[in-house]
Amino acid sequence: MKRFEWRDRIHALDAEADCERIVTILGSHEFPWDIEQALGLALYRTYAVPSIGELLARTKEFTSRTQHRYDDTALILNDILEHGFGPGRGRDALRRMNQMHRSYDIGNDDYRYVLSTFVVMPVRWINDLGYGWRRLTEHEIAASTNYYRKLGRHMGIKDIPETYAAFDELFDAYEREHFAYTDGGRAVSDATLALMADFYPAWQRPLIRPFTQALLDDRLVRAFDYPEPSRAWRVLARTALRLRARAVRLMPPREEPRLARQSPNIRSYPDGYDPNRIGTFPQGCPVPHDLATVEVPGTGAHVPAPGQAIGPAAGRHAPVPRTEPTAAQPAEPSER
Q: N or C terminus of the chain: which is more exposed, having fewer CB within 10 Å?
């Protein structure tokens, strides 16, 4: 298989009709590591919006169950992408996500902003910052935009931007207007940075937080009231990622897909999971009748009890275990 064969296959597809297939190729063959990092930073940025950061802090999901929240988010989004919007795991995952969101008073403008981060951040990471082994093409950007517009419609979001340029404008305008420090947003940010460090061997962890913070733009640093990263860390972090991109460019193309559920960073469900049985069940949110739960103190929400991620429904929804990386799917940090 030639190095640019996936790109050529993508360009033989339609950016609207085949947007799901194109985004799957980009996320599982061409840029699995890059898009995972970009989408992680996309969600991280949303903590700096006071209405979002404070809500996430009140749920305690990101501060007391950080690993579970990380896993649940990644797995639900993975199932939607991997299985599509039709009946089955994809639709079940979408329904589970919508159940959680609709249990809270979240404004449409916040939904639109969060959706914009998913559209914009991969392009900025790969193209604008130069961290991708090649640039995303306009055709690929259009397909990704179409995919997230489709996801947004399934989430019931109104007034979704129609083009990448419109998403890009919304992204910057919303952050300029709304980014501000809150104790809740800072607490969620600190917990997330601690989790990121925990993904690495103990001897590397003291370096991970300053390295990660060096990748944050000034707008985000100010919103969380973090010290300004030193110029040395800024240069080191950006240079390291650009050198990595050059190295990946010399590697053979990834023939076997690398899906988000295969990440070694996802640790909560080693025996598999049913998308109906993960996440949180806030007050008023329906709970499967056979799912044992425990209450999150001070929130009124319930979460699945240990060992409940599969349950009797596994016969209908075959559990999907985390696949250990193989030679064709190297683990972090050499993951490309």
A: N
